[in-house]
Structure formats: structure tokens, C-alpha cells
Amino acid sequence: MTTHPTSPTSPTDRSTAAIDVQELHKYFGDNEVLKGIDFHVGKAQVVCVIGPSGSGKSTLLRCVNLLEQPTSGKIFVEGEEITDPDADVDKLRARIGMVFQQFNLFPHMTVLRNLTIAQEKVKGRGKDEAVEVARANLAKVGLSEKESAYPAHLSGGQSQRAAIARALSMSPDMMLFDEPTSALDPELVGDVLAVMKDLATEGMTMMVVTHEMGFAREVGDKLVFMDGGVIVEAGDPRQVLADPQHERTQSFLSKVL
Questions:
Q1: What's the rounded mean pLDDT across residues 38-66?
Q2: Could you give the CA distance from residue 207 to residue 225 in angstroms, rounded to a whole number?
Q3: Which label site among 32, 77, 166, 184 has the fewest CB atoms less than 10 Å from its CB?
């Protein structure tokens, strides 16, 4: 298991949580996709969310930074309610890096420019500082030699690592990953997971929707199994994966492990 420098051992006090989700409901029309989700992510914790397609995993992740508007419930980011109608959503969102399944890089910009544009326009950094930060993060993900390349000339794994570097260049307090390896060829998955493991070791708070059970077992502090819009089971990843308590978890894991 990766050791996290400041990871709380038993984060029962939710007031200090990085992400705190309370009684979250989300409807799309008449379809209730999230049915009263209640959980939290402690600072410097890695929480992995698993479950079948359509279980609500990605919707939950997208609600955390209000890419999806919850129907009801509350979400707190470092103690501030992002779901409050009066919240400064842009300011709170700036603390949250997001990495998508599809890389969402600007195709007409070089890798370096993909990493600097939001720093300049959102963070207000000067060009030199933005480039310095971008290059440091490209080095972190092993892409220094690709700064002048365009996204079309990158492999899927390189594109995803560039997307991670772009998110890190905004200096977030936490990172959300929405199935970051599911669009990749199998031999490229390891490079992306290695970058994510390094982030965990450095103490980055992370919420990861994933199908990579090995990553969840090795790096995760908490594993959340979702099905049908509810959290069916949650706990230590090694315990849940080795000895799932709920019949639905057992059935799901028997198919994927």
C-alpha cells in the first residue's frame, strides 16, 4: 500500500474532509441516477469508486465539481459548500483538477500551450511562470520531449499523461479521475497508472472512478462499490476485494477479478 504522509488513519471527523457528499440525489428526467449518496474523502486519501456501467459512478464524480447539477443534497469542498446557490463555484472548482476518459486536449495547440492557456486566463499567471509550471509538470509525467508536439501526434497514453499534467498545472488541492485508462490500449495503461501512483505517494487527494482493481488494491485508501445509484459496500480495498460482504459486490467482483 502506498503510504500517504498526512493521510488520516480513521477520518471520522468529516469537518476536515477534502470532499464531503451528503444525501446526494440526481435525477435525469424521471430516472433517479443517484439515490442519497453519502460519503467523504479525507485529505491526502485516495478513494477508488468501482461498479458496473450505469451505476452512477461518473455522475457522482461530475457532481462533485458541479459539471452535473445535483437534484438535492449537499457537497462540501474543503469545508465550503459548492452546492450553496451563493457559492463562488469557479473559485472552488479551481481547487479541483479533473481528468476525463477522453483527454479533451485542444487539437490546434501544442502540448505546452494546452498546459499554459488556462494558467494564464484563469490563474492570471504571466507567460514565463505558466511555461515554467507546465514544463515542471510535463517532466513529472515523463513528457518533457513532447512539449512542441500536437495532440494528434501523441499516443493515447501520452495524451492522458498530458491531460494529467494540464490539470496539475492549475495547482489543485485534489484530483478527480473519471475512468482515466478505459480508452487506452492495455499496454499504455501502466504509464498512466504509474503517474497516478506517484501523485498518491506525494499526498494528493484523489477520487478515482476506475476498472483497475490492481490500482485500487495497491494505492487506494478506501474502495467504494456502487450499483443502481447507491453505495452498496465501502471499506479497505484489500478487504473488500478479498472478502466482499454484499452479494451484489461478490457477483460484480467474480466477473472482473
A1: 96
A2: 13
A3: 32
